[in-house]
Design brief:
This protein is an alpha/beta fold. The protein has 14 helices and eleven strands. Helices cover 36% and strands 10% of the residues. Helix 5 packs parallel to helix 6. The two termini are 31 Å apart.
Length: 372
């Protein structure tokens, strides 16, 4: 393999050298009758065309880890950060291999992100972890600039540091925004101390990609069969984060802030109408000093969401609630939640060709400020 087509190779699943690819989730080893149906395979996945028009497809939800950064945690903590899920075998980036996998899914561009694992780290270590990750991500994107983009890592537990990291990542390294958790080690980022970070993101015009990390407060109840910490906990964590941003007036304070939520935004789409009744039914549970400029459900049409919702009916409903302009591809690659993302959009009968073009890539290009 030529050096120009190689990036950050590692020799094993350890934390030595390279960028380690992993996603947020996977299926466990299930009986064959329980396996998710992959759907009918497409005949020709690249390039994707609709009505004779070439469509650029952009996946905003794909993952990686940087082993050098994981090594700063110590061996035991680093191992626990990498979950034992399908797709783990692909966690070292080889550019040719990654691009081939993207081609097989019909994906022209992936935007990589790293799920935050450093929010409880002390300042010096969190700064070092994020610096390493942002530099490595920028290096990787330079290896395939038309195919790979990336969200930055921020030490959000130190908002003053996060502001500096975000500006550096965007202006010097050319990253497309930042990936954040559903909270900062349990602290909701609607809290005022995080507002300087949102102000900087708004000023730079970049996206914050919210990716949950379960809902740790419910860990005891998530025990048992079915990986509920992910299947229930992840969507719930995102829902809580978004509703705090709405109810606490953060989206009024930062009206141009661009937020994209993973996994279809959790339960926000299906719960939006209920939000509108909360303060009417129970004014005692609402803050009279916070007067929202819109109904709570109106704010979700200002947010962005990936289409990782699995079925045509779920995608139809998400589009109906938030608007087709706010939905885009998300695969969780290399973890196999969604291995046929283009088919998922094309097989949703409620969508027009214009809708499909928007979801497959147009919306993401607009959100991220990419040239079409």
């Amino acid at each position: 393999m030529k050096a120009s087509r190689r990036a950050f190779l590692g020799a094993s699943a350890g934390v030595v050298g390279g960028i380690a690819l992993t996603g947020c989730a996977s299926t466990a080893a299930l009986p064959p009758t329980w396996r998710p149906s992959p759907g009918e395979p497409s005949v020709a996945r690249v390039p994707v065309s609709i009505a004779g028009r070439r469509v650029r497809t952009i996946d905003v939800h794909a993952h990686c880890y940087v082993p050098e950064a994981l090594a700063l945690l110590g061996a035991a903590e680093a191992r626990s950060t990498l979950p034992p899920v399908r797709g783990q075998q692909d966690h070292f980036i080889v550019v040719d291999k990654r691009l081939a996998e993207m081609d097989a899914m019909g994906i022209d561009m992936e935007v990589l992100s790293i799920n935050p694992f450093w929010y409880r780290q002390p300042r010096e270590n969190a700064e070092a972890i994020c610096r390493l990750q942002n530099e490595k991500m920028a290096e990787l994107c330079r290896a395939a600039p038309q195919r790979l983009g990336a969200f930055a890592s921020l030490a959000l537990q130190f908002p003053d540091l996060a502001v500096v990291q975000l500006e550096d990542a965007v202006t010097r390294l050319g990253l497309l925004g930042a990936a954040v958790g559903g909270s900062v080690a349990g602290e909701d980022f609607s809290e005022p101390r995080f507002h300087p970070v949102w102000a900087k993101a708004q000023a730079l015009g970049v996206t914050l990609f919210i990716h949950p990390q379960s809902t740790p407060e419910l860990a005891r109840r998530f025990k048992g069969n079915g990986w509920m910490s992910n299947v229930v906990g992840n969507p719930l964590d995102t829902t809580i984060a978004l509703q705090h941003l709405i109810y606490e007036g953060v989206l009024d304070k930062f009206p141009d802030l661009k937020i994209c939520a993973a996994h279809g935004g959790g339960y926000v789409g299906m719960n939006a109408p209920r939000m509108d009744f909360s303060c009417y039914v129970s004014p005692a549970n609402c803050n009279p000093d916070i007067v929202l400029k819109q109904r709570p459900s109106d704010y979700i049409r200002r947010l962005y969401f990936d289409a990782l919702v699995f079925t045509p009916e779920a995608l139809r409903h998400l589009v109906a609630e938030v608007g087709v302009s706010q939905v885009m591809l998300g695969t969780d690659h290399p973890i196999p939640w969604e291995t046929h993302p283009v088919d998922h959009v094309m097989n949703t009968p409620s969508l027009s060709d214009a809708d499909r073009v928007a979801i497959l890539g147009g919306n993401a290009a607009r959100m991220l400020g990419l040239r079409s």
